[in-house]
Amino acid sequence: MPTGSVEIVAVGTELLLGQLVDTNTPFIAQRLAESGIDVYATRAVGDNRERIAAAIREALARAAGVITTGGLGPTVDDLTKEAVCDALDLDTQLYAPALERMEAMFAALRRPMRPNNRKQAELPRGSRPLSNPNGTAPGFIAFARDGGFVVSMPGVPREMKPMLVEQVVPFLRERFGTGEAIYTRVLHTIGIGESEIDHRIGDLFACSENPKIAVLAHDFRADVKIMAKSSSAESAEAAIAPLQQAIEERLAGYVFGRDAETPASAVHSQLQARGWRLAVAESFTGGRLAAALTGVAGSSQSFTGAVVAYDDSVKIGQLGVNAGSIGDFGAVSEEVALEMARGVRDALGAQIALATTGIAGPGGATPGKPVGLAWIALVDALGRQRASRFELSGERETIARRATTIALGMLWRHLAH
Amino acid sequence: MPTGSVEIVAVGTELLLGQLVDTNTPFIAQRLAESGIDVYATRAVGDNRERIAAAIREALARAAGVITTGGLGPTVDDLTKEAVCDALDLDTQLYAPALERMEAMFAALRRPMRPNNRKQAELPRGSRPLSNPNGTAPGFIAFARDGGFVVSMPGVPREMKPMLVEQVVPFLRERFGTGEAIYTRVLHTIGIGESEIDHRIGDLFACSENPKIAVLAHDFRADVKIMAKSSSAESAEAAIAPLQQAIEERLAGYVFGRDAETPASAVHSQLQARGWRLAVAESFTGGRLAAALTGVAGSSQSFTGAVVAYDDSVKIGQLGVNAGSIGDFGAVSEEVALEMARGVRDALGAQIALATTGIAGPGGATPGKPVGLAWIALVDALGRQRASRFELSGERETIARRATTIALGMLWRHLAH
């Protein structure tokens, strides 16, 4: 159990002007939650020395420690270190290793080092430096006389994130002596609604305090999270495994992956298991399916390519769709979707093919064919084929994104079963 | 000039656990900045009555008013109204119009109204209700005896945003008597670095207090923002226009659009002006160029389609690339990029074509061809062609996204000049 809590203070006037969305604070909050460390409150303040110092003092009055991000750079607007010194009544001292590292970096770049860079190597007296392999400004942990502490990290996410995970979280876990951490297993589902999930596994929620279960709904997908508070990875795994097995059995046919897996990576695993290659024909999804599939490293082994047949002439010329089918049934129809899938499979030399055709809007609706209407078809080397009709809601980009998720889900289920 | 400032308090334990990224606060901050109203600080607190009340009291000690979001729903976790009453020492009173509206809604849905819904129609005594056409919970503005105020709005963005824009901002502008608002014109550039922009227009920054100028750098793009504080749109336009003209002249050839325009929409405008249609051949960008181009409503008029030639067999079979060129120069080469562009232009019946080939990583590098190497080519109906080589840094998705931006920029410049 946590024996202390922290507050997070994000520094930067651009945050108060709404010019920048602060993603650092939720990232830190998540990592702390996983380690069983409570966050009492979070806040954002501008680049103002007095206000930053006041925020730190207020936070330390309630919480055991404060974590700040931002304001450690070399410019006159970067005032976090000075404010920490004010709040804790400390002066600064030169941190020699940081200075040496900075001198080496500037020498390598053949650029002169300015006095304001040198300032970055000065840290509050008695503080513990946090090394920054991805930038010039080191972070630090400064200590108040009454036992409170302030962790200050740079605001650039690429610099802050590894510093937090590798240096700050271990410090906090030791400091708070939690011993326990929260271990999480995520089961990703597709094609099943939140209420149906609740119906099938709701009784497991009720009887389980540790591990805890939570369902997080996304657009046409849902994640089941199993969270175990435990003193070791092994004991956590032992607590999670039976629940995971029960949930996977009850949701059989819908769980496409675990933890970092995505619909696209699950599709690639299935393709590789069969030695199949996939081709895609896209109309209104306009490249989004191909982009999702090529987002997976190594996807070239199981993805041959795609034809974005936005214009009907491309459907006919590249995919061999019958002009007659378009004339008789319209470009958004079961027949054309299936012909697109067959055409791209043959043209691109694949064993399985997926095709989308639909109306993303805002224009393009006709009587009986509203904005959001979609046909998704697939055909495989065994001669199996299927096509499904959907009516999707939302704006243009939302409709295209939803169709992409649905198409990946259809393809995964076809391959997995 | 603003005569007061506000603090924003977001309520919700999920914010402290990092389960939800707070987009309400930046949205509110932006709208207030545009209206010339200062935000002193922002914070997030959990669903805890005492802590919410304490946050409101602290904020009111510094700022003229507080804006809260979240915690107005019907559940036991929704405690913002109670906390506002605690902080301002007020009790509640029933707000009859909200109750009537709620009763009508439940009757229409044929669902019974619960006592906890009735609770939502009770507001802090003496407060001004804020109607909520998109949900059940009304917002309110509660008043402290010493002149401070608390604006409370629901946390659902779809409910909060219109309430803020239509009801809260007018209240604040009247309250603070600013009369003035900030009007903004954004000029989007591509293909020019931040330091070169600074070199060309830096003197305009220095001599201009109102309108103000700011440069915001994105990945391979930069925006120049001109912000005029003014009492009317007409006088703002009169102040912005000469500066805009001067900046556009000095950055001629790089400003692709204004305000809501994107690189893709600028490309479509250029294509439509010429009556040209575009085709795209993508290798490592894997559909991202097509997705960006089809994100523009009405793009079917000037975009025929794309071939995502992920596998070399598709480059050869669909695009007519010479197997010999791939053998001699490699798939990531000037020759293959140009052949892809010519091939897709001819195959898809377009007047202009764009092609990308590169190594997104993490695998695929060969001696002399590192991860991040990219060739982007274009050919048009007038026989003009060009190909450029880039070395991009970042992870797989970043490299693909950067190449997409660069390709759109190349295409826009070719069309515009």
Topology, please?
Two copies of one chain form a homodimer.
Chain A (H helix, E strand, L loop, with lengths): L4 E7 L1 H4 L7 H11 L3 E8 L3 H14 L2 E5 L10 H9 L3 E3 L1 H13 L6 H4 L3 E3 L3 E3 L8 E5 L5 E5 L3 H20 L4 E10 L3 H13 L5 E7 L2 E10 L2 H18 L4 E4 L4 H12 L3 E5 L5 H7 L8 E7 L2 H8 L3 H7 L4 H14 L4 E7 L14 E8 L4 E7 L4 H21 L1
Name the pair of protein chains with the most residues at their interface, and give those residue counts: A-B, 71 and 71 residues
Biggest β-sheet: strands ordered side by side in the sheet of chain A: 2-1-3-8-7-6
What gyration radius of chain A follows from the Cα positions, in whole Å? 27 Å
Q: What is the quaternary state of this protein?
A: homodimer
The CATH C-level class name of the largest domain in chain A: Alpha Beta
Instruction: Report the CATH superfamily of the largest domain in chain A.
Output: MoaB/Mog-like domain
**Helix share, percent of chain A:** 40-55%
Mean pLDDT of chain A: 91
First-residue to last-residue Cα separation of chain A: 43 Å
Give the CATH topology of the largest domain in chain A. Molybdenum Cofactor Biosythetic Enzyme, Chain A
Determine the strand fraction of chain A and express it as a percent band: 15-25%
Report on this structure.
- Two copies of one chain form a homodimer.
- Chain A has helices at 13-16, 24-34, 49-62, 80-88, 96-108, 115-118, 157-176, 194-206, 233-250, 263-274, 288-294, 312-319, 323-329, 334-347, 396-416, and strands at 5-11, 38-45, 65-69, 92-94, 122-124, 128-130, 139-143, 149-153, 181-190, 212-218, 221-230, 255-258, 278-282, 303-309, 352-358, 373-380, 385-391.
- With 417 residues, chain A is of the alpha/beta class.
- The first copy, chain A, folds into three domains: 5-176, Molybdenum Cofactor Biosythetic Enzyme, Chain A (3-Layer(aba) Sandwich), CATH 3.40.980; 181-258, 2-Layer Sandwich (Alpha-Beta Plaits); 263-416, CinA-like (Maf protein), CATH 3.90.950.20.
- In chain A, the strands form four sheets. A six-stranded mixed beta sheet of chain A has the order 2-1-3-8-7-6, sandwiched between helices.
- In chain A, strand 10 (212-218) and strand 11 (221-230) form a beta hairpin.
- At the A-B interface, helix 2, strand 2, helix 3, helix 11 and strand 14 of A face helix 2, strand 2, helix 3, helix 11 and strand 14 of B.
- Strand 2 (38-45) of chain A pairs antiparallel with strand 2 of chain B.
